[in-house]
Amino acid sequence: MRDNAWLALRIQSAVRIGITIALFTMNMTVFPPRDHAFLIYAIMGSYAAVNLFLLLAHWNWLTPLRAALWPMLIDLAAITTVLALSGGFPSATSNYITLFDDLYFLVPIVVAFQLVPHVTALAGVASVSAYLAAAAVATAAPDWVYLVTHACFIAMVALCCVLFSALQRSRVSTIADLVQQRSVLLSQVITLEEDERRKISEVLHDGALQNILAAKLDAEEISQAGVGQATEGSLFRLQSTLADAAHQLRSSVTELHPDQVKLAGLERALHSLFEKGARRGGFELDFTCQVSGPTPVDEIIFRAAGEFLSNIVKHAEARRVQVRLIATEERVRLSVTDDGRGIAPGQLAAKAKEGHIGVSSQRVRAEGVGGRLTLESVQPHGTAAVIELPFQCDR
Description:
The protein is α+β, with helices and mostly antiparallel strands and about 400 residues long. About 65% of the residues lie in helices and about 10% in strands. It is built from 13 helices and five strands. The protein has helices at about 1-30, 35-55, 65-85, 105-110, 115-140, 145-205, 210-225, 230-255, 260-265, 265-280, 300-315, 345-355, 360-370, and strands at about 285-290, 320-325, 330-340, 370-375, 385-390. Strands 1-2-3-5-4 form a five-stranded mixed beta sheet. Helix 1 runs antiparallel to helix 2 (about 35-55) and helix 5 (about 115-140) runs antiparallel to helix 6. The radius of gyration is 38 Å and the shape is elongated. Residues about 90-95 have low confidence and may be disordered.
């Protein structure tokens, strides 16, 4: 809005300068003022100089409100002064024609560029009030029929300008919100990529890498064994350790594969995921599944389950975890309940500020397809994580 205010002020100033030059030319040739011609031309020249200054200057304190309000006050002061000095208010319906009173139409139009609807409305009210007040002061017996009719037209133009300003402001605000959301989403994508790399690193470090290091020690022991020394035990440990490392790597690759849910199905993929988590976390697993086939949201369910399990293994210190997966014709619901430490009030918000947005990202995914994700403490202790997603099966 600030960028728009600065651009609009420059456009307004250029328009005012153009109008001033056109009016000066018309009044010099076709409709010369009745009175005070030199003073009127001096005011017009000063007005053009002020707008030239606004066109070229840069204002650090500029805000949309100031950019709309102060030029409007200058416009009304210049127009009303020139109109009063020129004798442009008709005292009776006559053939006399003036251009200055028509300038009141331009005040709300030019102010509307700033996209501040309440200032545009103020410009309309001020234009009508200044026009009628100046006519009452400058002329002993003004033609009120003409003046009121003219004022009504000014008011109608001002109303249209207010509606235009509100519409354009809404569009600019929508664009600004989209830009801000894009920046937030981009930041979240970068954070998610870093989080995924961290998870892969943890999986490899805590599993296969430890076995490979142990195998390296066995291999060194075998290589350093003297002639005649028994190495059967070291060879057996080496073979067993490498087999475990291969199994862990294969399991990790399967878990990280993007199509594992499609290949194995949601029930088998979830059961395998939580069984491995139970071994790592040392808890008892109670798994129940009621699904009759694949659904369009299986991947989102699986990713959310992985985030729930990761938090349980790392933070919950749970002894028992209950998993319930239920799919109906129109909805899938996964609930994961543990008897661990629970969630302290404000803990999720604090973690998100620190950059841990795993749960937040899953909530965004769920809400993006019209679902919901909740994470709550349960009594006497523990946490209940639930994700519920709607869909329309093609069955």
